[in-house]
Amino acid sequence: MSLLEVEGLTKQFGGLTAVNDVSFVVEQGQICSVIGPNGAGKSTLFKLISSFLAPTAGRVRFDGRQVSGLKPHRVARMGVVRTFQETTVFKEMTALENVVVAHQLGLTAGPFGIFAGSRRARADTLRIRDSAAEILDYLGLGHVKDETAVNLPHGYLRGLGIAIAMAARPRLLLLDEPFAGMNPDETDRAMEMVQGIRARGITVLLVEHDMRAVMRISDWIVVISFGSKIAEGKPEAIRADEAVIAAYLGEDDAELGH
Ligand SMILES: Nc1ncnc2c1ncn2[C@@H]1O[C@H](COP(=O)(O)OP(=O)(O)OP(=O)(O)O)[C@@H](O)[C@H]1O
Fold first, then answer.
1. Is residue 187 within 8 Å of residue 210, measured between CB atoms?
2. Which atom of ligand 1 is nearest to the CA of 227?
3. What CA–CA distance (Å, rounded) separates 218 from 224?
4. What is the pLDDT of residues 70-116, one digit of tens each?
5. Pocket around ligand 1 at a 6 A CB cut-off
6. For residue 15, what are the contacts with CB-CB under 8 A and spacing of at least 6?
7. β-pairing verdict for 172-176 and 80-82
8. Which atom of ligand 1 is nearest to the CA of 14?
9. Where does this protein have coiled-coil stretches (predicted)?
10. Helical residues (DSSP H) of 9-153, grouped into ranges
11. Distance between CA 69 and CA 51 in Å, rounded?
12. pLDDT tens digits, 136-174
């Protein structure tokens, strides 16, 4: 059984079909990317998978269980966690404090337990700080953990958004355009981050416009255009695919990673 199964997924907004009968699977441990020209339906597909939108038809299953129709926070608790293009970061807190807070929001002791100073809460607090520091370390952000978020450069801030998502202990991490607006150095660092996440056994599904990065990082690529899947396969096959090349013609920046 595949970790994520997307079957016949369709979303209509009034008369517009944003996602049209899309099916694909993501295997445990893969880095899978969904790409497509502007307006192809990538964001909509992403929201359907994380259950922020309900499909018009079709379904999403995670680890054999139906996800479509559940509330996003329940889906997150099952292990499907998404980032947002503009993640909410507490700008006055340090990087570490941000990840600690993200942990605490999902903590069993509950928010009052943390402040009550109970033994359980104190043990939780130490455990959380360790875990938050570990996440920042393996994402390559350990050296900025005590920086106030507002002082972090753009690429680091985006990385902090990923660290915050990791605090929810995902089994499947959904990354929304992780390389958007990044310079080549930042993109390289972000790609290392994604590989580091996968190395810890977490499956990654990303939606991205930057073909170059996608070609280098993905095990499997799904291409959508005008809401429909037009190709899927390994990067080498996608790069040579006639339908994909045709879909990207006229997009000036997109260059298929050649
Ligand atoms: N809530 C909505 N109501 C109506 N139409 C919508 C809604 N959300 C998206 N659409 C339309 O659905 C289509 C697909 O949009 P979507 O944002 O999913 O594409 P995308 O591939 O993510 O684009 P981009 O790369 O530009 O972010 C577009 O035509 C868009 O205008």
1. yes
2. 14
3. 16
4. 998 899 889 999 886 666 788 899 999 999 988 877 654 444 444 45
5. 13, 16, 18, 36, 38-44, 209
6. none
7. parallel
8. 4
9. none
10. 42-49, 72-78, 95-105, 110-116, 119-138
11. 7
12. 998 999 999 999 999 998 888 889 999 999 998 899 999
* CATH number of 1-79+170-258, picked from 2.130.10.10, 3.40.50.1010, 1.25.40.10, 3.40.50.300: 3.40.50.300
Tokens of 10: 């369709």
Per-domain residue ranges for the chain? 1-79+170-258, 87-168
d(CA 180, CA 185) in angstroms, rounded, equals: 13
Q: Measured between alpha carbons, how far is 19 from 9 in angstroms, rounded to an integer?
A: 7
Q: Are 23 and 8 in contact (CB under 8 A)?
A: yes
Q: 174: exposed, middle or buried (C-beta count within 10 Å: 0-12, 13-18, 19+)?
A: buried
Amino acid symbol at 8: G
